[in-house]
Amino acid sequence: MSKIELSELDFFSAEVQECPFHVYQQLQEEAPVWQMPGTNVFVVTRYDDIREIIRDPSQFSSSFSALLNTGSSNEEVNSIYGQGYEMVETLLTQDPPRHRVYRNLVNKVFSNKRIEGMRNEVEKMSHELIDSWIDESEVDLLNRFCVPLPIYVISDQLGVPRSELPLIKKWSDASASRLGRLASEEEQIQNAKDIVEFQHYFAGLIDRMRESPEDNIISDLANNTIDEGRLLTKPEALGMIQQILVAGNETSTSAIAGGVVLLIQNPEQQAMLRQHPDLLPGAVEEILRLETPTTGMWRRATADTEIGGVDIPEGAFLMVRFAAGNRDESIFRDGGAMSIARENADSHLAFGQGTHFCLGAQLARMELQVALTGLLNRTTDWALVEGKNSLRHSPNVLLRGLTDLHIAFKKTAH
Ligand code: HEM
């Protein structure tokens, strides 16, 4: 792949985001902390620099919602958001010490022990989904497995009926698209309508859970107290629900779908995994490293500082590119290649690190393990169906996920 003149690099363009790996490598070699020309945005691509930034929230703040919530230039979009609830800082865009107040409310629900306790139920869901197409010879795996599985899991946890899957998917797509900032004006209008609809739906559910509490996350968020005994405001609770929904759906779907494609494209790795199922946890880490569904995140410099020898002025925004760090050759030898037995695969940055380390990391790992085990045990002879797979990704600057995945397979004798 030929090198690009960095002064002409349009890093966030849909073309670069579709096929970014040669650009990541060039940046790592030539300008690992690269200021986008004419902006106050610095793109950070080396593993060690990313780690340093995300482990230091006092110098590199997560209060970057100005980048996400900037009033749209479109009046209609703003007026639609005006009919919903205000967006407030809770988890992802909140700094310590305040961040801890919100995080404590949900940590217990996502603890390792509780997630392990959910494994049997997730296996059951996975088998039910596979049952619905196992007697066919090819399947739209994205829509009949990778999308519904995480949505069913999170809907159960939130206390939303599974029949609401289309709504949850729509709301989560809209939130992800808004976060990723590559939406057209028409899409922005639709996203605004969907997000406001989401807010009103969950505001109603919060009211119901306040009247008669149940054992689910919405009920916990509706009834648990912070700040010496007050309930969360609706915008606080809605902000947390929205993050759990979006962060928990798109990313897990992308990891399962991307993992299947990686195993198809690396048949010797797939054969090894089929022969040695004990390699599964490592394979999942390797898939997370290579796929990195959350490709990057923002930070804001709180003071004049320096990273990787580059001066960063107060107020500058840093794009920490997890997907680039996860292929940094100084940490992961032959980083673009899949090796399910890679010893340090679990050092990847796919879940971030430090204060904002992914709340759902254990859940995502468990879902991936269950999903791949079910697929590997019950189907074999996987192939991409010709003419039905673009292998392209949804345009988004923060999240990366396939837009289609149709596979041919044979049912195993199990
Ligand atoms: C493969 C799947 C997943 C990936 C790749 C992923 C990735 C990430 C990353 C990179 C961060 C850190 C962002 C930062 O440093 O600013 C994060 C945070 C977060 N994730 Fe995940 N995630 C996944 C699954 C989930 C699931 C299943 C849930 C919830 C059920 C979830 C909920 C969250 C939340 C709420 C945060 C914000 C945490 C905080 O700021 O304290 N994620 N995730």
Fold and architecture overview:
The protein is built from 17 helices and 12 strands. The chain is of the alpha+beta class and 414 residues long. It folds into 2 domains: 1-61 and 295-349, 2-Layer Sandwich (Uridine Diphospho-n-acetylenolpyruvylglucosamine Reductase, domain 2), CATH 3.30.43; 62-294 and 350-411, Orthogonal Bundle (Cytochrome p450), CATH 1.10.630. Strands 1-2-10-7-3 form a 5-stranded mixed beta sheet, with helices on one face. The chain starts with 13 loop residues before the first helix and ends with a strand. Bound molecules: protoporphyrin IX containing FE. Protoporphyrin IX containing FE binds next to α13 and α17.
In short:
This protein is of the alpha+beta class and about 425 residues long. The protein has helices at about 15-20, 20-30, 45-55, 65-70, 75-80, 100-105, 110-130, 140-145, 150-160, 165-180, 185-210, 215-225, 235-265, 265-275, 280-290, 320-325, 360-380; strands spanning about 35, 40-45, 60, 140, 225, 230, 295-300, 305, 310, 315-320, 380-385, 405-410.
